[in-house]
Structures are given as C-alpha cells and as structure tokens.
Design brief:
This protein has five helices and ten strands, in the order βαββαβββαβββααβ. The protein is globular. A hairpin with a 5-residue loop joins strand 8 and strand 9. About 20% of the residues lie in helices and about 30% in strands. Strands 1, 2, 3, 4, 5, 6, 7, 8, 9 and 10 form a ten-stranded mixed β-sheet that branches. The protein folds into two domains: about 90 residues, Alpha-Beta Plaits, CATH 3.30.70; about 140 residues, Pseudouridine synthase I, catalytic domain, C-terminal subdomain (Alpha-Beta Plaits), CATH 3.30.70. The longest helix has 14 residues. By secondary structure, it is α+β, with helices and mostly antiparallel strands. Helix 1 packs across helix 2. It comes from Thermosulfuriphilus ammonigenes.
Length: about 250
C-alpha cells in the first residue's frame, strides 16, 4: 500500500465545492473519477479542507491510498492530461502512510480579493468581489491586530454550524493593494478555519472600509462571539486557498 499526496490548483467557478455530492460536479468527485480511471481501482481522496462552491485554490492538498506501482511523475502527467482545464495537479509525491492531508496540516493560508472601483469587471467577475465604493484601507488595517493570536471567532463562523470549539490561532493577517487597478487582497494564515470564517471576516472588513462600521465596532463584534450581530459573508468568488503547511 502506498500513500500519495497531491497539490492541486483549481478554478472553483463551475463546481459545487470540494466535497463529493450525489448531484453536480465537485472537485473531489472529479479527482476520484479520474484517478479511478488511471489506476483501475476505486479511489477515495482526503482533502486538507472543504472549499465551498465558487471558491478557488492555488495549493489545495489531498492524499489517497493505492496499491498501484505507477510512479508520481507519470501519475501527474496522466492526471493533467485527463482532468478538466479548470483543474491542475501541481505536484505528486509519495509520502508516509501516516500522512493525512487534513489532520497532518499545521497551518493554512487563504486570501480574499476585493475589487474596489466604480465600474464592474468583465475579467474579474468570478475571481473577486466587486465593491463599487472606494475603501478606507487604513481603517481596515486597524482591525487586523485584534484578529491575530489565539481568539474566539464565534462571531465569524457559519450560522448553524456545530463545532467543538470556535477558538483558532491566527499567525498573520495582512491587507494590501495588488498590481491590478482597484484590487485589494486580505490574506490570513491560521492553524485552522471555521466554515465561512474568512468570508465573514472579509465581509466585516469591507463594512469598515466603507465607513459603515468603525474599527472599534469590529472589535466589539469579535468580543461579542455572536454571529447574529455580524454582517453577511463576502461572496465566494473572491476566496482562494493559497497554501497548506505541514512542517
């Protein structure tokens, strides 16, 4: 038995998210079907995280077990030849049998893109959240120190989601302009994320940038640990899983 690790890039626009479902295309389902064709046996893959419908990834990680002797380089070439063009295998590695894409992860990095300009974009419509207002970047940055460190993010979880704890450790959080006119990127690295956590944080930060909330209001929302007090989440198309860190 061998354990194979995949690093995957995908455009989530045409998928119902990572997790396999009975109806509709998913990232996991597409990968499993393609791997089964190549390896001639049923394959079950485990992902580092379950991205939602419309969310993208530059460095999603998954692993699966196989008895096939096909070498990693040949497997990677076969996958990239057969997978849809909106999905690519960046790296294939054979790893220790104990490796688990989700449970072995130490950190994950996501970023969220906001297009802050008066006119909508034809190019970025599936890859950023268009906000027609000019956002106050300094006010948004003033919120970041309060989400770094070990914090309770109950105010920023998905409504109705049950989880053992809503406490997470954020190692780094930044907001900056990138070399696309009007584009702002919010990037965050943590030991784990609640469902919708990054989108909920991005939604609140945009409210601050619009002047509809102050940085002090943001801190009060974080301290309240009450999702019902928070603004709606940012839409999915601006969210990217950038990297999963294991060492």
């Amino acid at each position: 038995m061998r354990n194979i690790k995949l690093t995957i890039e995908y455009d989530g626009t045409n998928y119902l998210g990572w997790q396999r479902q009975k109806v509709g295309p998913t990232i996991q389902g597409t990968l499993e079907e393609t791997l089964s064709r190549i390896l001639n046996h049923r394959v079950h893959i485990r992902g580092a995280g379950r991205t939602d419908a419309g969310v993208h990834a530059l460095g999603q990680v998954a692993n699966f077990k196989t008895t096939s002797s096909l070498d990693p380089a040949s497997l990677g070439r076969a996958l990239n030849a057969l997978l849809p063009r909106d999905m690519a295998i960046i790296k294939v590695e054979e790893v220790d049998l104990k490796f688990h894409a989700q449970f072995s992860a130490k950190k994950k990095t996501y970023f969220y893109q906001i297009l802050s300009r008066p006119v909508r974009s034809a190019i970025w419509r599936n890859y950023a959240w268009w906000v027609p207002d000019r956002l106050d970047l300094e006010a948004m940055k003033a919120c970041l120190p309060y989400i770094q460190g070990r914090r309770d993010f109950a105010s920023f979880r998905n409504t109705g989601t049950s989880t053992r704890t809503t406490v997470r450790t954020v190692f780094e959080a930044t907001i900056k302009r990138v070399p696309v006119a009007g584009m702002i990127r919010f990037e965050i690295t943590a030991d784990g994320f609640l469902r919708y956590m990054v989108r909920n944080l991005a939604g609140a930060l945009v409210r601050v940038g619009q002047g509809r909330m102050s940085p002090e209001d943001f801190v009060q929302l974080l301290d309240a640990r009450d999702r019902s007090l928070a603004p709606p989440p940012a839409p999915p198309q601006g969210l990217y899983l950038k990297e999963v860190i294991y060492d």
